[in-house]
Write a structure and sequence with these properties.
Blueprint lengths: L20 H16 L10 E6 L5 H12 L3 E5 L13 H9 L4 E6 L4 H7 L5 E6 L5 H15 L6 E5 L6 H10 L5 E5 L8 H9 L3 E5 L4 H5 L3 E4 L10 H7 L18 E3 L20 H19 L7
Parallel strand pairs: 1-2, 1-3, 3-4, 5-6, 5-8, 6-7, 8-9
Helix pairs in contact: 1-5, 1-10, 2-10, 5-6, 5-10
The structure holds phosphoric acid mono(formamide)ester.
The site of phosphoric acid mono(formamide)ester has 9 residues, from helix 2.
Length: 313
């Protein structure tokens, strides 16, 4: 092991926008090494804090598994009501306190920008585990790793994003990350959940192909390499009537995959509600459960990078 500083990352993992192509490729290379050998004592003596102000299954448990398998101890909370937040303690004070105890802080928060704010009030590395509808950069690393594993490359991939593209932080982060690899995007969403202007402008600025449609049909499925399904997220709507309008807008069924390309894989950050029928699970095109497993290796790579721990070749 030796200490190193990597490219753009300032020992915080806040947004995909902070990463360059080399950062991404080297993290993916490390993820592959962790997949080959997930149990290493690289973090002996370290403490990892996981502060989850919003519910989570995969992100929290995979970060905690990542830390445990590398020999670190884990502290934190999965429910802010069990912390002094419920007594009125501010996020600033919470971060300052936890910084006294932990070597790295993994934080999910419902407010956009909360992770960046936390990184400005502590020298302890902050890993953004999702901030509102903004970013979910560690999910992006496992998404990229999954695309790379299933397609053999990240270059020139045709990727179709379906569902809640307005509030979906995973698709926002993925659009930015894929921009280094000449993707072709198809955005499928109802008008109410259209990909935000900021990300469409990002595609234009980076000369990335994208098109948009509301229909989710077999023609759209048959042309693509990656079908990235997303959940319509009830918790992001301020008007419940709007959620009711779009909650069941799309559902992928196994019969719809009959004429898909052989390399097509269905990804989903999960949890799903009803946008992927259960009969898809047994299809060789379904990859969402393996995708979640890849999160363990990607997050091992991220934690080590934040602590400047370099893997042996
Ligand atoms: N993909 C994802 O963020 O899942 P969780 O909400 O369960 O962490």
């Amino acid at each position: 092991m030796c200490a190193v500083i990597f490219n753009n990352m300032q020992n915080n993992f806040i947004s995909v926008a902070d990463l360059n192509k080399d950062d991404i490729l080297s993290l993916l290379a490390d993820a592959a090494k962790f997949e080959a050998n997930p149990n290493q004592r690289l973090l002996e003596g370290k403490v990892v804090a996981t502060l989850f102000f919003e519910p989570s299954t995969r992100t929290r448990l995979s970060f905690e598994t990542a830390a445990n398998r590398l020999g670190a101890r884990v502290i934190g909370f999965s429910d802010p009501n069990s912390s002094s937040t419920s007594k009125g303690e501010t996020l600033k004070d919470t971060i300052k306190m936890v910084s006294n105890y932990a070597d790295v802080i993994v934080m999910r928060h419902f407010l956009e920008g909360a992770a960046r704010y936390a990184s400005e009030i502590t020298d302890v590395p902050i890993i953004n585990a999702g901030d509102g509808a903004n970013q979910h950069p560690s999910q992006t690393m496992l998404d990229l790793y999954s695309i790379w594993k299933t397609q053999g490359t990240l270059d020139n991939i045709d990727i179709t994003m379906v569902g809640d593209l307005k509030y979906g932080r995973t698709v926002h982060s993925l659009v930015q990350a894929m921009s280094f690899f000449n993707p072709k995007f198809h955005f499928i969403a109802p008008d109410l959940l259209r990909m935000p202007n900021g990300y469409r402008d990002f595609c234009k600025r980076h000369d990335l192909y994208f098109d948009e449609q509301e229909d989710f049909n077999e023609e759209a499925i048959n042309r693509t390499d990656i079908l990235y399904m997303t959940r319509v997220q009830r918790e992001r709507f301020s008007d419940p009537r709007e959620y009711e309008q779009v909650k069941n807008v799309y559902c992928l069924r196994r019969s719809m995959l009959e004429h898909a390309k052989s390399n097509l894989r269905v990804l989903h950050p999960l949890p799903r509600v009803n946008e992927i029928a259960y009969d898809v699970d047994d299809s060789d095109k379904a990859y969402y459960f393996q995708q979640a497993q890849n999160g363990l290796y990607a997050r091992q790579a991220i934690i080590c990078r934040m602590l400047n721990i370099k893997l042996e070749q």
